[in-house]
Design brief:
alpha+beta, Trna Endonuclease, Chain: A, domain 1, five-stranded mixed sheet, globular
C-alpha cells in the first residue's frame, strides 16, 4: 500500500485510476485515459467537472489564455493526467497553481505511462 495522506475521496479516485490503468495499460495518449476515468468516476457515483476552464489573469486583467484542468472531483480534488516518461518539477508547479486558483487543497498528478500506476501517482497539497 502506498504511503499517502488523503481522504476517502482520494482513495476512491486512486482506485478508479488503477482500474483504468489495469484495463488500458500504459502507452496511450491522454484522451483515452480521460474518457475511461470519467466513466469510472461516474460509475462510482462521484460528481466531477472535466476539462475545467481556468483563465489566466494578472491583476484582474484577462491575459487571453485559458488553461484547462483535467478534472475537479467533488469540488475538493484536482486531477491532472499525464502520459510522460516521468513527472517533472514543472508538473508539480502547474498543479500548485491550479490548486491556488481553484481554492482546492489537494491534487493528484497521475502519469498513466508508468508501468505501475502507483509509481506514477503524486499527491500535491496546498499549504494552508
Amino acid at each position: 500500500m502506498m504511503n499517502l495522506h488523503t481522504t476517502a475521496l482520494g482513495w476512491s479516485v486512486i482506485g478508479c485510476s488503477i482500474a483504468v490503468h489495469r484495463a488500458l495499460g500504459p502507452g496511450l495518449l491522454e484522451s483515452p485515459y480521460e474518457g475511461a476515468l470519467a466513466h469510472e468516476l461516474r460509475t462510482r457515483g462521484h460528481s466531477f467537472r472535466h476539462q475545467v476552464p481556468l483563465p489566466a489573469r494578472y491583476k484582474g486583467e484577462n491575459l487571453g489564455r485559458t488553461y484547462r484542468v483535467d478534472f475537479v472531483v467533488e469540488n475538493e480534488l484536482v486531477l491532472e493526467l499525464k502520459t510522460v516518461s516521468r513527472l517533472l518539477p514543472v508538473h508539480r508547479a502547474q498543479m500548485l497553481t491550479y490548486l491556488k486558483l481553484l481554492h482546492v487543497r489537494q491534487g493528484f498528478l497521475i502519469n498513466f505511462s508508468a508501468p505501475r500506476l502507483v509509481d506514477g501517482l503524486v499527491s500535491v497539497l496546498l499549504a494552508e
